[in-house]
């Protein structure tokens, strides 16, 4: 089914002038929350999703196949959503991969298109794919805004998962000519949900709703660690949906500020760089609006028989 056919079930459309080009770059099989963000992007009519690209998580997995696992997971989500016309593309296999993957070629080609609309790249994991594209074709930076889920809280920073998967890619992004909208760890961590909430608002709606809930519930049982303070047993953080929020929200919220891009130290803390380019750093995002929007779209689209 074409994505437009699914979106027609919403019963409303977005103004053409509001539609933005988006590439979703995701380490989809790393945990259980990227899948929620992929679905949310695809169910949002203001988002002209050009592709969903697979990112590795080799710093965690160390198996050599994490990108391929992300790629297969993206394919699975698209199939469960009944979407046939959005491409899934393989990305770089690891930080040292010097080849140019399908994802990298696509980012470059999409950025070079004669299209007046800006190109947003939502970076949900390691920034390896976008960094490789910017290294191969530095001139595309002027045409790209990276909505980047990554980095520790300001001002000091601290080790953070997405940056830790490829610190050099994060540095390349901060040093490139691309605009950067950074969503630090303390902001994306605010997208906390309970399993009961997901059982009520996600599980009932289509094969995708059942899968989103079941794979998260299984991960929660498998990965629970009492020393991991982010989880208490019946909660999870849908942190990657923060990138959707940054593109859905109005621009009068006063929930971000501009600062110079920091230096990323060896220990993944921040150092001052007076010559750093201006970047946008989010201080908060509307969790209620974002999650209610996801739940409503799932119900409207997959609750209709």
3D structure, described in words:
The structure is a single chain. Helix 2 (34-42) packs parallel to helix 12 (241-248). By secondary structure, the chain is α/β, with parallel strands linked by helices. The strands form three sheets. An eight-stranded mixed beta sheet has the order 3-2-1-4-5-6-12-9, sandwiched between helices. It has a two-stranded antiparallel ribbon with strand order 7-8. The protein has a two-stranded antiparallel ribbon with strand order 10-11. The radius of gyration is 18 Å and the shape is globular. The protein contains 13 helices and twelve strands. The longest helix is centred in the last third of the chain and has 18 residues, at 206-223. 40% of the residues lie in helices and 17% in strands.
* Number of continuous helical runs: 13
Give the amount of beta strand, in percent: 15-25%
Series of secondary-structure elements, N-terminal to C-terminal: HEHEHHEHEHEHHEHEHHEHEEEEH
Main sheet characteristics: 8 strands, mixed
- Give the CATH architecture: Alpha-Beta Complex
CATH class: Alpha Beta
Shape: globular
Number of strands: 12
Strand order of the largest sheet: 3-2-1-4-5-6-12-9
Q: Determine the structural class based on helices, strands and strand pairing.
A: alpha/beta
Oligomer: single chain
The tally of structural domains comes to: 1
- Low-confidence parts: none
Query: Which percent bin holds the helix content?
Result: 25-40%
């Amino acid at each position: 089914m074409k994505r437009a056919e699914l979106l027609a079930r919403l019963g409303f459309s977005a103004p053409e002038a509001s539609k933005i080009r988006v590439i979703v770059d995701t380490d989809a099989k790393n945990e259980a929350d990227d899948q929620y963000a992929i679905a949310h992007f695809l169910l949002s009519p203001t988002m002209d999703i050009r592709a969903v690209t697979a990112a590795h998580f080799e710093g965690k997995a160390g198996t050599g196949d994490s990108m391929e696992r992300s790629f297969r997971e993206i394919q699975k989500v698209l199939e469960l959503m009944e979407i046939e016309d959005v491409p899934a593309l393989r990305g770089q296999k690891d930080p040292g991969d010097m080849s140019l993957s399908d994802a990298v070629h696509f980012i470059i080609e999409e950025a070079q298109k004669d299209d007046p609309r800006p190109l947003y790249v939502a970076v949900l994991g390691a920034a390896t794919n976008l960094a490789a594209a910017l290294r191969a074709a530095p001139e595309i930076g002027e045409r790209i805004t990276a909505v980047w889920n990554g980095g520790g809280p300001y001002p000091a920073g601290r080790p953070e998962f997405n940056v830790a998967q490829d610190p050099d890619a994060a540095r390349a992004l901060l040093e490139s000519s691309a605009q950067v909208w950074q969503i630090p760890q303390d902001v994306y961590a605010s997208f906390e949900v309970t399993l009961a909430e997901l059982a009520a608002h996600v599980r009932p709606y289509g094969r995708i709703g059942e899968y989103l809930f079941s794979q998260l519930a299984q991960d929660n049982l498998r990965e629970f660690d009492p020393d991991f303070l982010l989880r208490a047993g019946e909660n999870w953080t849908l942190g990657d949906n923060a990138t959707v929020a940054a593109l859905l929200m109005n621009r009068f919220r006063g929930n971000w500020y501009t600062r110079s891009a920091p230096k990323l130290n060896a220990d993944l803390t921040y150092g001052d760089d007076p010559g750093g380019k201006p970047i946008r750093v989010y201080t908060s995002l509307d969790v209620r609006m974002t999650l209610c929007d996801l739940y409503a779209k799932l119900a409207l689209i997959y609750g209709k028989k």
